[in-house]
Amino acid sequence: MGCCESALGTPPEKEHQNQQQQGLNPPLNTHPLSSAATTAAGGVPSFSEFSLSDLKAATNNFSPDYIVSESGERAPNLVYKGRLQNRRWIAVKKFTKLAWPDPKQFAEEAWGVGKLRHRRLANLIGYCCDGDERLLVAEYMPNDTLAKHLFHWDKQTIEWAMRLRVALNIAEALDYCSSEGLPLYHDLNAYRVLFDEDGDPRLSCFGLMKNSRDGKSYSTNLAYTPPEYLRTGRVTPESVIYSFGTVLLDLLSGKHIPPSHALDMLRAKNIVLLMDSHLEGKFSAEEATAVIGLASQCLQNEPRERPSMNGLAASLDPLQTKSDVPSHIMLGISKQVEAPPTPQRPLSPMGDACSRMDLTAIHEILVKMHYRDDEGTNELSFQEWTQQMKEMLDARKRGDSAFRDKDFRTAIDNYSQFINVGTMVSPTVHARRSLCYLLCDQPDAALRDAMQAQNISPDWPVAFYMQSVALAKLDMHQDAADMLNEAAGLEEKRQKGGRGS
Length: 501
Known about the structure:
CATH class of the largest domain: Mainly Alpha
Number of domains: 3
CATH architecture of the largest domain: Orthogonal Bundle
Number of helices: 20
CATH superfamily of the largest domain: Transferase(Phosphotransferase) domain 1
Helix content: 40-55%
CATH topology of the largest domain: Transferase(Phosphotransferase), domain 1
Radius of gyration: 26 Å
Strand content: 5-15%
């Protein structure tokens, strides 16, 4: 178990879910900034339950301006982009009313998908069940879909090496899902392939759940649907292979060609006619022939004659070229700036330490500051000085001792005891626990604490400084720079007022 491991590391027990639906237990981790919402490998938040109010705030009350579904408001289940209070961008899939009547079934399905974490997936990070509302929350991919880049491009089409990279990445994503016990992917097509901030292709996690409890697994034209699905209405792992074959056809042709038509072209050996003319011949005939062969195998009428996803990935891997060229360069898109701009104001020692993300220096400053900035945050009556108060203050003392000794896990435990009682509020305790979380590699929880410190003391520069460090750890560099500058401004204002920093 790592330092300060989250309670969300594994899905909840089914018994707890049953009790929760019956109102016997409180919901698990209902806030996206709860201390349990720690980040998993690669900075992906652990799966959690979101409140409807949080998702409304993130999407401007599900404004039409926030819709990112390719078919816009005509789509049966709309997808919105949104931004959480912690500045993380998300994608929210909003199902039609009563698509999933049973909240327990929807939650269990979502938890099953939410356990997956892979760099080739646009991972599911949460869900919401509130009244008739059923929503899924995923990582937001800012650089459009494969369909947009293949069929509706403005400046440049996708070069051949990038198309091979897309094929491999999606095969690896599907192979991973299958190895984790989720081999069924519903309605795989070019709209399900997304590009992240680095331009790397990822598979949308939304296809791992059906559009409704009893809904169809395929919503595209019947010409692209696996033949066995037309016969039985059931999707199988072999059906996913067939759909992968249609994506390979898209990559080859740059058009959405019905598989039957494409196979007729291949039988007539019209390979040149099949290839995307916008490539202008800039592709390897040998590689193209290999991909055409794989597509033909995937599109076999008999499911048992199709290859495995693992075998497809193994066949696509040797075809990769330009492995050292970043995806965003091949796509012709700009990459997010990694380094924050220089702050507009001079920085204090605290500001300088935060700008450098020097956690050791921040720790030394917080130890020296003690609790001098907590003045005026608590006004307690005589009656409140109870045994409970003594125990709470003792917990804070134990936390302070552990904090000085750099025993950050123990400090978190004791500071949490102090905070959870709720009789006193202390921005300093939240700032100290925020640093502890950073040192335990939990930037989401650190950001939550820094924001709470700001709520208690709205003009306290340290609260803003700690937020800037947490945001930088979450790769939100522009937001981190803005927060750092705001903190420096507050500090400058304090100094002009003669209060010190």
